[in-house]
Amino acid sequence: MSLYDKFVANKRLRRAVLLVVVIVLFYLFRSMLSLFLLTFIFTFLSVQLVRAVQKHFKLKPMWIIAPTYILIIALLVFAVTNYIPQLVHQSVKIVNSLTQFYQSKEVRDNQYLAYVYDYLQQINLDNQIKTFASQLVNYVSSVGATGVNIFLSFILSFFYTSQVDEMNQFGRQFLNSNYSWLFDDIRYYGQKFINTFGVVIEAQLMIAVVNTVLTTITLIVMQMPGVIALAAMVFFLSLIPVAGVIISLIPLSFVAYSVDGLKYVVYIIVMVIVIHMIETYFLNPKFMSSMTHLPIFFTFVILIVSEELLGTWGLIVGIPIFVFFLDILGVHQIGGKKKPKMRPWKFKKS
């Protein structure tokens, strides 16, 4: 038996080599990471929608996905023309009001806030705000590139989902090729990736939407300023597992104190605690039933490391990627039942 035949016969070794090769390729093409991740997320959600509708109505994917994407585009145009200007205006207003508030005599005369004020003076908050503003300008200047990635991901996901059955049929042909072992291993990792990464991202999006709706309703009832900007902030922070809710408490508390003192801060803290309990005892068991429930320590360590390696994307995809590797290692769930499998793209050898 030749060395090649021995390598092909050793399934565990060849799959380990393939995984290393894939990781190296993603590292080499790391500048396109946003495009890869956005395309996968859009495609995964679209395919899930198509399969859910097809359970009740025998329709071709094109008849399902085309109206959906048209509706999404219409909503985006409406949001950009009506709410984006308000979002920018409210964000600038909140930053200015917080800066004025922290520099006000009321803060310096308050014995409890005096320590906070002295600390902010020590870290030179004024310069930090100016630095943040300059970074924000640089980020806005790069929105064009981000917009191109989103547009390309959107288009690619549409083409894939509209022909998902044809794509599956085309993919099966590789399983009968001369290098069927290679494509069978790719299929294996693809299914693992969908069963973990895709499902976790979908669940986190649902949790973020629910958290944002509950928070927005509370902010409206409290008559807080800049609700649109605060709601947008809460949504993006809610995409960060566990830590997002805690991080959002800091700016919300500052805005609440500037509105009506400690009373509103207490209201905000109670709101965050209630939402966190809803997320912990209702949303996570409902949406995250297929996810390995990690201890809080591991969650924060993964977020810190993934942010260092992948930047902002790491805060969102760090946990799903870690769960993906746990699934490959056979660690299906820590202290629980083995997770169910979801396979929206299921390939079978013919």
UniProtKB/TrEMBL annotation:
Organism lineage string: Bacteria, Bacillati, Bacillota, Bacilli, Lactobacillales
Record keyword Membrane present: yes
Keyword set, alphabetical order: Membrane, Transmembrane, Transmembrane helix
Single biological process term from Gene Ontology: transmembrane transport
Similarity-based family: Belongs to the autoinducer-2 exporter (AI-2E) (TC 2.A.86) family.
One Pfam family per UniProt: AI-2E_transport
Keyword check for Membrane: yes
The protein's name: Transporter
Cellular location(s): Membrane
Mode of membrane association: Multi-pass membrane protein
Cellular component GO terms, alphabetical: membrane
Transmembrane segments: 16-42, 62-84, 136-160, 197-221, 228-252, 264-283, 290-306, 312-334
Main localization, broad class: membrane
